Amino acid sequence: MHDQDVLTAVRALAPALRERATGTEALRRLPDTTVRELADAGFFRLLQPRAYGGLATAPAVFHTAVHEIARACGSTGWAASVLAVHAWFVAQLDPRAQQDVWETDADARICSSHAPTGRVTAVDGGYRLSGRWHFSAGCDHARWALLGGLVTDGGGTPLDMRTFLVPSADYRVDDVWDTVGLRGSGSNDLVVDDAFVPAHRTLGYGAVATLRCPGHATNPEPVYRLPYAAVFTTTLATVTVAIAEGAYEDHLAAARGNPRAAAGRPAAEDPFAQVRLARAAGEIDAARLQLSRSTDEMYALAARGAEIPTELRARTRRDQALAGERARTAVDLLLENAGRGPLRVGDDVLQRAWRDLQTGRGQAANDVERALVLFARDALGMDVDDPML
Fold first, then answer.
1. Which of 2, 86, 97, 382 could bridge 377 with an S-S bond, Cβ 3.0-4.6 Å?
2. SS3 sequence, 255-309?
3. What is the pLDDT of residue 82?
4. How confident is the model at residue 318 (pLDDT cuts 50, 70, 90)?
């Protein structure tokens, strides 16, 4: 299977995902059928190492596939992309951890909750983990979880922030996801009760930030030499922009055939509605272009074995956060055009997009102000230090 084969298969699935969107919301998680179809299409293998049957593809290919899925169904795009992108993170881990995940099951999927909300205790050979982790998208379809945690000294002072790879046998899924948006993403809580995590299944944020991860010893492909934000955070930004684009396309089709009068003329002929439509399209295009520019530049550097400068990493982070803001602006403009229709409770693509984007903005990666401060500090010659950079 090749990159383009996956993109062709994903595009062929899009109409079914769009048709299934209402049912996905009602289910509050991805349907088993959807996950199976995406797996058969090869989507979950795009960022998986070639050593385990993956494609280790360029981020442009992966994000194109994510865009096609999320444009059809925001919840599916969010959960499926998060499950798929974690193959990239596992590829950064000690080779023994990669073997644990894929040696006997090359189709194993990984969910996550990176916020350090649990308790971590260092012990001989590894760590003991307990607690509750929130908002783990797609967790019902995963066999492993990546969980964030703070390692402290005896007095509670943080020493290190790490990610812990935990098998599904060591955690349970608590079905608490019931929200106004991204309802079908199944972002439930994970509960761990005193599980042992061997040292080789953990990775400190310092190694990720400096691009010096143990997995590089066995995975030479350039995609694994990219910063965390270039892959994971851009993935979420891609989902938000795709949700807005799907709403734009649906609204445009409806406007072309809508006889609703505005100032005595068909709605499509209202010049103010046309301006809002053009602005919405511009916001979506600007977001897509900025995202692809940054990741393409980073990937080109990684492919040459060159250093990725902090300036480019800060700009990428800025553009990711602004992409979510642009997506919300675009959908707000479309809502102004649509009148009262989307306000009614029911199945409406534009309303669903608005709800999904408002919910998605709560993800830490979509914190606009924090990302802009990072960019400005770097531009001003000040120190910057952030795990999402």
1. 382
2. HHCCCCEECCEEHHHCHHHHHHHHHHHHHHHHHHHHHHHHHHHHHHHHHHCCCCC
3. 97
4. very high
- Cα angle 292, 308, 239; round to 5: 30
Q: What angle do the packed helices 368-379 and 310-338 form, to 10 degrees?
A: 140
Q: How far apart are alpha carbons 113 and 137 in whole angstroms?
A: 8
* Ordered alpha helix ranges (H), the chain: 3-19, 21-27, 32-41, 59-72, 74-90, 95-102, 205-209, 228, 234-256, 271-304, 310-338, 349-360, 368-379
Give SS3 for 1: coil
Contact 44, 84 (CB under 8 A): yes
Q: What burial letters (b/e) apply to 264-297, b meaning 16+ CB within 10 Å?
A: eeebbebeebeebbeebbebbebbbebbbebbee
Alpha-carbon Rg for the chain in angstroms: 21
Rounded Cα–Cα distance for residues 16 and 340 (Å): 28
Alpha carbon distances (Å) from 210 to 289, 303, 379 = 27, 17, 20
Task: Tell me how far apart the alpha carbons of residues 130 and 201 are, in angstroms, rounded to a whole number.
Answer: 16
Distance CA 127, CA 163 (A): 11
> How far is Cα of residue 350 from the mean position of the Cα atoms in its chain?
21
- Shortest CA distance to 109 belongs to which of 73, 64, 146? 146
Determine the pLDDT at residue 258: 64
DSSP letter, residue 125: T
Report d(CA 30, CA 27) in Å as an integer.
7
Query: CA 6, CA 100: separation in Å to the nearest integer?
Result: 26
Look up the CATH superfamily of 3-107: Acyl-CoA dehydrogenase/oxidase, N-terminal domain (1.10.540.10)
List pLDDT tens digits, range 75-125. 999 999 999 999 999 999 999 999 999 999 999 999 999 999 999 999 999
Tokens describing residue 213: 């991860």
Where helices occur in 111-233 by DSSP H, the ranges are 205-209, 228
Task: Spell out the CATH class of 226-379.
Answer: mainly alpha
Q: What CATH topology corresponds to 110-209?
A: Butyryl-CoA Dehydrogenase, subunit A; domain 2 (2.40.110)
HEC secondary structure over 35-76: HHHHHHHCHHHCCCCHHHCCCCCCHHHHHHHHHHHHHHCHHH
Neighbouring-strand partners of residue 204: 162
**Intervals of CATH 1.20.140.10 along the chain:** 226-379
